[in-house]
């Protein structure tokens, strides 16, 4: 009989004392999911807020069923995200999968200013609210 699948063990993970790390190579990562500040040549500080941006892109990919910036080279992605302030298009997500509260949360995750992006606890709270509202069904319109 095969061993049952065991959950991932995070016993070796540790919390950091600080929220920012100095780095010589902030541009390391998967380009499609990298926060704009990681493309800035004069940036050498990486915070946990880059993960919030990446989470937003991942959530967009799951909801849209598409790959972000598919077919584009890193330099083109960097220019679009950091210089043009472009983000994956919300209209690529079917409207039934993107209630207004979730669209607002995605925009917050993608804010150009890392300090304005939501904290992880706030993300969880907002996602739970979206799930709760979705379970109740669409809100009635004024005409009903």
Automatic annotation (TrEMBL):
Cited InterPro entries: Kinase-like_dom_sf, Prot_kinase_dom, Ser-Thr/Tyr_kinase_cat_dom, Ser/Thr_Kinases-Pseudokinases
Domain Protein kinase residues, every copy: 1-129
Protein name from the UniProt record: Protein kinase domain-containing protein
Domain of life: Eukaryota
GO molecular function, one term: protein serine/threonine kinase activity
Cross-referenced Gene3D superfamilies: Transferase(Phosphotransferase) domain 1
Coiled-coil residues: none
Organism: Gonium pectorale
Organism placement in taxonomy: Eukaryota, Viridiplantae, Chlorophyta, core chlorophytes, Chlorophyceae
């Amino acid at each position: 009989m095969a061993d049952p699948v065991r959950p991932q063990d995070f016993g070796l993970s540790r919390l950091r004392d600080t929220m920012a790390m100095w780095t010589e190579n902030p541009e390391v990562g998967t380009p499609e999911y990298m926060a704009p500040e990681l493309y800035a040549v004069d940036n050498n500080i990486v915070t946990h807020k880059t993960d919030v941006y990446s989470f937003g892109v991942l959530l967009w990919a799951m909801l849209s069923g598409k790959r972000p910036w598919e077919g584009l080279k890193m330099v083109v992605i960097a220019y679009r995200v950091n210089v043009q302030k472009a983000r994956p298009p919300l209209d690529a997500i079917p409207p039934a999968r993107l209630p207004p509260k979730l669209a607002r949360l995605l925009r917050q995750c993608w804010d150009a200013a890392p300090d304005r992006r939501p904290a992880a606890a706030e993300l969880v709270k907002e996602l739970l609210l979206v799930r709760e509202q979705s379970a109740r069904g669409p809100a009635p319109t004024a005409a009903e």
